[in-house]
Amino acid sequence: MCLRRGEAFLLGAVLLMGAAMHLWGLGVLLHRADRSGSLGPALPWAIALFWLHASAVLALSGWRTGLRAVTALAILPFAQLLATGAFYAGSAYVFVSEEPTLSILQMSALLAACLVLQRRAPPRIARHAAILAIMAFVTANLCALVGSLGGDVIGSSWTAPRLADFQTAAPGTATREEINAAFDAFLEARQAFYETARRIPAGTYALAWAAALAALGIWSAATLRRGLFNTAVTFAAIHAYTQLMETLDAAPLAWLLAGLSDAQPGCASGQRLRNGQPESRAVAEGSSPSSFCRAGAAPGFGGSTAERSARV
User: How far apart, in whole angstroms, are the C-alpha atoms of residue 43 and residue 46?
Assistant: First the structure.
């Protein structure tokens, strides 16, 4: 029995190392094709296929080795299909979602597929489907957080003006004046685009997100899906706090109403509740629409890092 376990560990380690080297090699080839321009207009499609392939490789590797942590990592390349991801800059942890609405639909489709698989597949596959469903739900909620802060213009990542459209000089040959002029023209074009584009308002997003969290929370509790229920409760708290600070402006009346609503069940059970008011509120407002949220403070970190931004 010990020999079999040792063999399984060895085979699993070799499989994971082989998968990592395989994906790394494909990434290097795509990077070289991007720099050389050898793929031309087919490059975006090649990148999309790479992210799909990477998701499948990670999910299958996790299932084959029995490591659900590896299966959970499949959500990272899958989210990159619509430029959804995260990065670290200074002391800021930034979540980026260029297309919140489309990303939510993408993650919802994955969530539904995993729930069906969890119900009909054998137990071993069902366990991996369950962890991937939770990861899809978490990612969808993060995208909803972005939308609730700045709304969304569906398809803007493809239709909005880009900085490259205003750069006429060859790479590495432009003067500082040409770079500044191109950037100014880009900002003006972006502002004009978003002023005329049809937008899903942030308020609509916030209400729809709250309703979805309530519905999924009730359903997951009734069906005993603890992972989804805990995720729904966690993001409901995040949503309430964010709206209190960003939309209600942390006004005393908002705290008073929240305290009264919380105090009712507490008084009925003989409990004493205390309601505190925060001493300060940090708000960072950008001139461009929302595409990422961050935690922490990064000196000198401005909206130019991403073309569309909203910050927490």
Answer: 5
| HSE-up of residue 187 (Cα within 13 Å, Cβ side) | 11
Q: How confident is the model at residue 251 (pLDDT cuts 50, 70, 90)?
A: low
Whether the per-residue pLDDT at 263 is higher than 60: the answer is no
Out of 173-177, 240-244, 303-307, least confident range: 303-307
Whether the pLDDT of residue 266 is over 60: the answer is no
pTM exceeds 0.85 for this model? no
Tokens 């708000």 sit at which residue? 283
